[in-house]
Amino acid sequence: MNRRADRNRFPGIVAALALAGTAAVLSGCDAGAQAARDYISIVGSSTVYPFATVVAERFGRTTPFRTPKVEATGSGGGLALFCNGIGVQHPDIANSSRRITASEVRRCQSNGVREIVEVKIGFDGIVLAGSRSAEPLDLSLRHVYLALAKHVPDPGGGEALVPNPYRRWSDIDPALPPVRIEVLGPPPTSGTRDAFLELAMEGGCKSFPWIAALERDAYLAACHTIREDGAYVEAGENDNLIVQKLAGNPAALGIFGYSFLEQNSDKLRAAKVDGVAPAFDTIADGRYPVARPLYFYVKKAHVGFIPGIPEYVQEFTSEAAAGEFGYLSDLGLIPLPERERAAVLAAVRDLEPLELVTQE
After folding, report:
1. Rounded distance, CA 333 to CA 166, Å?
2. For site-directed labelling of 31, which of 12, 210, 293, 335 has its Cα 20 to 30 A away?
3. Closest Cα to residue 101, out of 123, 121, 75, 122?
4. Are 338 and 12 in contact (CB under 8 A)?
């Protein structure tokens, strides 16, 4: 898809962020401490990492500020670091491939991180992909759930859960290949794992009406508990490592973001889910069923003390980067619809505080 860069900027974001940052009190960060770090520290999602890295590199080349340090720690791990406190020893920004949870908000608040700016940057699909040398798969959400859940409905019938008996895809559906189920996926700290549980596993699980009718704790236990008998292999936060393993085992599948599939399309092919292949257009228009929004979170108290935060936010949210034809779309980021993007930009420009829920 041909893309054109439109470098419209949003100077209001810079002004508002800088004004708020000047008024903030950075606990424990006096002039000496401030001088201890002159770059932005960013942690979090391995899915958002490629986008944040490209923005950081451009930011370092085109502004007087140092290139931010971006680390892929997983969404959960990054938000934990972000919420540890205020001061130069703590990150300024956390990338996340899911929205911050109520419990994470409470942890932030208990450590003095009371004002958080949420920036929704776009959408990404979660794919199940394997080697291009393997037979392409067309899976339903129910197939995915039955392949990976620790307990599944008794194949003999009745409303009871039993330890997962399925060893091959053809055990689930004779139309699927007689290949051993082996899926390499992210660990519990990953936002991709969280979103996969909610969208794919839960999507297939609730196709059984009697499970959907269970009380919440029993429902989540049935839908969100991954099997531990070797069919699902935690492969860490390094998506490149998953690609290497898939090359050595063409029968296996890996779970990662669509953007990573785009970058490795010469090696990988994605399975269809409910008859829909993951693609820019099918994720953007909602046809692909396993898609999720991406975010980053800014620690408002650090604005004005750590140099360049307003300018970095401006670059990431600019039309040239995150717009319909921005350079991030060439990496696989699915831009927000124009009306939603305008609302996000207004909220960031005005530094509207995140509406903090108190219950999960």
Report:
1. 35
2. 12
3. 75
4. no
The phi and psi torsions of 297 (rounded to 5 degrees) equal -120, 135
340 in helix, strand or coil?
A: helix
* Beta strands per DSSP E along the chain: 41-44, 69-70, 93-96, 116-131, 138-139, 151-153, 161-163, 183-185, 232-234, 253-257, 268-270, 272-273, 291-299
Q: Which of these, 290, 161, 171, 181, lies nearest to 232 by C-alpha position?
A: 181
Q: What is the pLDDT of residues 195-218, one digit of tens each?
A: 899 999 999 999 999 999 999 999
Cα separation, 135 vs 150, whole angstroms: 26
Q: How many CA atoms lie within 13 A of 199 on its CB side?
A: 23
- Given a contact cutoff of 8 angstroms between Cβ atoms, the answer to whether 302 and 26 are in contact is yes
Question: What b-and-e string marks burial along 17-43, b requiring 16 or more CB atoms within 10 Å of the CB?
Answer: beebbeebebeebeeeebeebebbbbb
Render pLDDT for 47-99 as a digit per residue (tens, 0 to 9). 899 999 999 999 999 999 999 999 999 999 999 999 999 999 999 999 999 99
> By CB neighbour count within 10 A (0-12 exposed, 13-18 middle, 19+ buried), where does 46 fall?
buried
Distance CA 138, CA 217 (A): 31
Q: pTM of this prediction?
A: 0.77
